[in-house]
Amino acid sequence: MRFGAKAHQLVSSASESWATPDAPIVWHANGATVVPTVDDVFERTTIVFVVLVNADVTDSVLGRGTTHFDRRVAERTVIATGSASPDYLRSLQKHCGSRRSLR
Fold first, then answer.
1. Which domain holds residue 84?
2. In the chain, how many domains are there?
3. pLDDT above 90 covers what percent of the chain?
4. CA dist., res. 31 & res. 59, Å (int)
5. pLDDT band at residue 1, thresholds of 50, 70 and 90?
6. What is the CATH classification number for the domain harbouring 70?
7. What is the pLDDT of residue 63?
8. Does the pLDDT at position 2 exceed 70?
9. Bigger pLDDT: 2 or 78?
10. Handedness of CA 19, 38, 41, 61 (dihedral sign)
């Protein structure tokens, strides 16, 4: 499935969706509401789809290794659908701990 088709499918199946201004235009074109920051996205929902290119970008957006991480992922289901390796995703899931969910 092309990225644009995946974005369209995710956005159109959600009752509401959000993206930051620097997200690919395909998200905006398919109906995602643009909010100023990553924190604004996380504050608006309990289920977050993270569609990012690799582990470094995913860590940056989640704030892994910073004080932002706990606030962003606490009490949320984070669904990582990017191209990160299975080893990275297992490590991230372990880092999230039992009070959070990574799928």
1. 3-102
2. 1
3. 15
4. 26
5. very low
6. 3.40.50.720
7. 93
8. no
9. 78
10. positive
Quick one: tokens of 6? Answer: 């995946």
Residue by residue, DSSP assigns 9-66 as: HHHHHSSS-EE-TTS-HHHHHTTPEE-SSHHHHHHT-SEEEE--SSHHHHHHHHTTTS
- CA–CA dist 72, 31 (Å, integer): 23
Radius of gyration of the chain (CA): 13
Average pLDDT (49-65) is 87
Structure tokens at 50: 């993270």
Mind listing the pLDDT tens digit for each residue in 6-25?
666 766 676 677 777 877 77
Strands 101-102 and 77-80: parallel
